[in-house]
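Supplementary Methods. Inverse-folding protocol.

Structures were first reduced to a discrete structure-token string of length 341. This string, shown here, constituted the complete conditioning input.
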């Protein structure tokens, strides 16, 4: 169900940074974000395994992109869908979910409460119709990670065909993505280690202060949780990152894997500036959680030297790929607010 998204060369960001900046436009997935890759795979896989003689019911818990991905995939497959969302979910997100044919259940102040409701709903369906439900977690699960990983071979193949890419291999030297719960990052790391290449890119996982559960756990070496989400980038607001993503990040830097990995935490204001500039430079609007991944390019003088210092190559421009993960929790008023700030 997912589409092969474009990898485009960014002339403004390349000129600004002095390196070759390429954008993987996951915002063009049918639901508006990368999450459609993994979640559509989960639903298709579980539907094929179901023993139920009636169409399965898709159940998700998300006030944003995961819910939209589940609803969009369910509609495409002709399946019913229920999405549990927090009471704080924006009206236009609720309307988008309903437009995809989903039943929307609002309740609870946080995602965790909604997720409990989704799991209870799935259990109720299973009681009546064994094998009749698919519970979709927003950022965990092997099928979900495998789905997200499909963007990586696309990146490698597309980069080889880009005239602007440098080096004999035309491979990424630095790969940047936002991280929240860790599903996207887990997919990216899984996809990279499966590539038959002589070297692996330095992977940078970007978060906003106040939504930096991954960095807190990775840098401390303990699977700790945040007490609260204080960032405005609520789409990356997981109190606790997935254990799988943390384990993959650790294993990526072993001698056997041969990769470099860093976390980068930025203020909301930096992400907002990057999001506004990106809209101006590329006529694309992305939500704050996605805009965070653009900060190494828009603040290249302050950020890139330290990140590129881990690269063995110093004789040519580096190939930097940024996953523009997308997201639907943004509108024109947000972009104008970011401009004013």
């Amino acid at each position: 169900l997912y589409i092969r998204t474009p990898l485009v060369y960014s002339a403004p960001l390349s000129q600004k940074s002095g390196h070759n900046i390429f954008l993987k436009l996951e915002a063009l997935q049918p639901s508006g974000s990368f999450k459609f890759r993994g979640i559509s795979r989960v639903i298709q896989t579980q539907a094929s395994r179901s023993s139920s003689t009636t169409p399965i019911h898709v159940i998700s818990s998300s006030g944003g992109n995961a819910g939209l991905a589940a609803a969009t995939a369910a509609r495409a497959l002709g399946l019913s869908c229920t999405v549990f969302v927090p009471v704080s979910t924006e009206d236009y997100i609720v309307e988008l979910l309903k437009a995809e044919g989903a039943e929307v259940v609002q309740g609870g102040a946080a995602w965790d409460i909604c997720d409990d409701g989704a799991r209870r709903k799935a259990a109720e369906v299973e009681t009546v119709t064994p094998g009749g439900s698919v519970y979709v977690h927003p950022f965990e699960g092997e099928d979900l990670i495998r789905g997200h990983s499909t963007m990586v071979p696309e990146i490698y193949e597309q980069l080889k065909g880009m005239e602007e890419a440098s080096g004999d291999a035309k491979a990424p030297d630095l790969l940047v993505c936002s991280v929240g719960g860790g599903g996207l990052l887990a997919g990216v790391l899984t996809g990279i280690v499966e590539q038959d290449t002589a070297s692996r890119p330095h992977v940078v996982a970007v978060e906003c202060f106040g939504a930096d559960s991954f960095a807190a756990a990775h840098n401390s070496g303990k699977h700790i949780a945040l007490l609260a989400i204080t960032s405005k980038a609520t789409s990356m607001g997981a109190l606790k990152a997935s254990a799988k993503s943390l384990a993959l990040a650790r294993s990526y830097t072993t001698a056997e894997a041969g990769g470099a990995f860093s976390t980068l935490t930025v203020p909301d204001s930096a992400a907002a500036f990057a999001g506004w500039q990106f809209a101006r430079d590329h006529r694309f609007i992305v939500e704050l959680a996605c805009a965070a991944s653009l900060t190494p390019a828009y603040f290249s003088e302050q950020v890139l030297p330290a990140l590129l210092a881990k690269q063995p190559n110093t004789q040519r421009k580096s190939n930097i790929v940024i996953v523009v993960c997308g997201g639907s929790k943004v509108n024109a008023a947000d972009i104008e607010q970011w401009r004013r700030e």
